[in-house]
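Structure in, sequence out. Go:
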């Protein structure tokens, strides 16, 4: 079966039009809720002296030399202390304004220097059995004040007082610090059939489709299946520049959706529909469409007689397509990109024949 057949023969009804998929904001909110729950569970089981360091990855979030971090330490007698970075540790252009500082205080943080020993950091001290409330405050700090767009941008390290690592289980889609250099998608060896064959060895039809799919993605990402970013819906997330690509496995009918929310908070207009129709006609596989206020790109891959190379092609096309199109469409129609900090709406323009397709169209 050709790649064109993979996209063209798929029934419209099994693509990505259902409201639960189109509601991206709910999906991101669920990811943060899952992270807060996992953090609360972790804190409840850590011994005295253990410490959890949470950092917004600057290489992924675009914060440059600014390091936004929160450290949580288990003290004797069931007490938890948390310290969050303050302006003294941030470059001038990334310092928090008065409103952000007020938000920190509203979340329960004491200003720098108020909690004994906190120095230049915001601080809070509570009981270990109140770890759920602290986890919620930390999650909201990272998301709403420090600007982490998704828990997948967080890296964490759990260690003891001698800085020896502690095995404490996963924190939802946040990444353990030792795995930093294995994140991201490397497409430079997509034609390495030997590596793929080794990864897929033993994944015959008796192995569930979702396991085979994750094996392929892990091989492409040069990581392990356990370190893939998987959210509460079971979707595997792959960052592609300013875009996010998700891979979802469906059971009935067996299908793998490779999809991306290209733009959110965009106004559906006639010009937008015309543009998406034109771009879809130029795509080698897949389609573009609007659901609610979100522009989606979708490439389906059949699950029956699953072919790893079909999924690899779909991921390769989608990661390039999404990163290119979100910038192009945002410049023309406004809205928000998944990782487009500070995106603002613009007046839609009709460029007509001035549009020139890029390498993925």
């Amino acid at each position: 079966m050709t790649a064109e057949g993979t996209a063209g023969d798929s029934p419209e009804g099994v693509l990505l039009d259902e409201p639960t998929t189109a509601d991206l904001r709910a999906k991101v909110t669920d990811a943060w809720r899952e992270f807060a729950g996992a953090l609360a569970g972790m804190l409840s089981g850590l011994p005295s002296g253990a410490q959890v360091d949470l950092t917004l990855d600057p290489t992924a979030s675009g914060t440059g030399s600014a390091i936004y971090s929160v450290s949580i330490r288990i003290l004797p007698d069931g007490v938890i202390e948390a310290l969050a970075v303050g302006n003294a540790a941030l470059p001038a252009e990334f310092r928090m304004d008065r409103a952000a500082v007020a938000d920190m205080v509203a979340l329960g943080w004491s200003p720098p220097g108020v909690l004994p020993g906190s120095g230049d950091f915001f601080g809070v001290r509570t009981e270990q059995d109140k770890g759920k409330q602290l986890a919620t405050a930390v999650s909201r700090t990272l998301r709403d004040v420090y600007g982490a767009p998704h828990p997948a941008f967080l890296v964490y390290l759990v260690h003891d007082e001698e800085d020896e690592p502690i095995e404490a289980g996963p924190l939802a889609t946040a990444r353990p610090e030792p795995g930093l250099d294995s994140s991201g998608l490397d497409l430079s060896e997509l034609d390495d059939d030997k590596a793929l064959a080794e990864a897929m060895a033993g994944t015959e039809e008796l192995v569930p489709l979702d396991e085979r799919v994750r094996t392929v993605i892990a091989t492409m990402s040069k990581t392990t299946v356990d370190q893939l970013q998987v959210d509460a819906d079971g979707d595997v997330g792959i960052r592609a520049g300013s875009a996010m690509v998700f891979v979802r496995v469906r059971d009935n009918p067996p299908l793998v959706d490779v999809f991306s929310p290209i733009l959110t908070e965009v106004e559906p207009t006639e010009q937008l529909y015309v543009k998406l129709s034109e771009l879809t006609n130029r795509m080698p596989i897949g389609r573009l469409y609007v659901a609610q206020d979100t522009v989606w790109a979708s490439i389906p891959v059949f699950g029956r007689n699953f072919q790893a190379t079909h999924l690899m092609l779909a991921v390769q096309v989608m990661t390039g397509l999404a990163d290119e199109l979100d910038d192009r469409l945002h410049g023309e129609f406004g809205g928000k990109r998944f990782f487009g900090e500070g995106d603002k709406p613009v007046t839609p323009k009709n460029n007509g024949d001035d549009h020139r397709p890029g390498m993925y169209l």
